[in-house]
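Mods, move this if it's the wrong board.
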Amino acid sequence: FSEEYRIRCKDGSPNWIAARGIARRDASGNVIRMAGSESDITERKRIEQALIEAHHRKDEFLAMLAHELRNPLTPIRNAAHVLGRLGIREPRVQWAQQTIERQVDHLVRLVDELLDVSRIVRGKVTLKVEVVELAGVVNQALEMARPLIDAMGHQVEVQLPGQPVYLQGDPVRLAQVLLNLLDNAAKYTPDGGRIQVEASVAGPVLEIQVRDNGLGIPAELLPQVFELFQQGERTLDRSQGGLGIGSTLVKRLVEMHGGLLEAYSAGTGQGSTFTVCLPVLPGTSTAERREVPDAGPATAARCRVLVVDDDSAV
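Not the wrong board. Structure tokens:
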């Protein structure tokens, strides 16, 4: 047996006790005696509780930090946008305006990831589940990843099943999963690299693999690649690396969809493969794969938008 319980000491203070034991039996199987021990584990329990409270405070701090960082980003982005609308032809002004917008976009992505992780850790993320078609999710992720992929001169190859594949999930979150994997593949692959997205259906499971021929993952880092704030060493030109929370976020989102996320790499310089396994809806075909053209620019209907912002800094 193994039990942990509290006792009250003579001075009224509570102590934690761990009791461990085993029954001794005779030839007939009857218990004839007990052998065991009891230990005072009060200090261990105190340390465990302190760690739990520290972990909770960390989660609360991350949530507060993300919200506070987000507040000044909106007025900075609005100011940069207004600066661009002024039509100033001075090259240095244009360079400054474009730089601000690019860096704000990068900061928004980091802050959004931080917010998502803090919400998931605290159980405050809910999925808007609906029937989702795989090709639409893939194209949406490719469209959002296109600026970084094009800027680094990567070649992207996409292969999907020949027939539509339907999932039960949140289309926004599923696209976010693939976008993060594509972004990581682009960031950690030298300019002019190759990224492959391949999907196949085996029975009730959809398997999506995102492969690259980039920097790879060291063997000692591979077991911890999905841990929060975990990153490998990066060369100085890999300045676009994030906070080390993207992989953790992706793993949690995949698991919320009833799926599994795995990472593989033969080692440093050997590229990486991330595999997402998700349940498919019954009746999904396993027909021959088809090539999917790169996602082009999105077209949106023209409309008038009223934005109401209560930030006094705007």
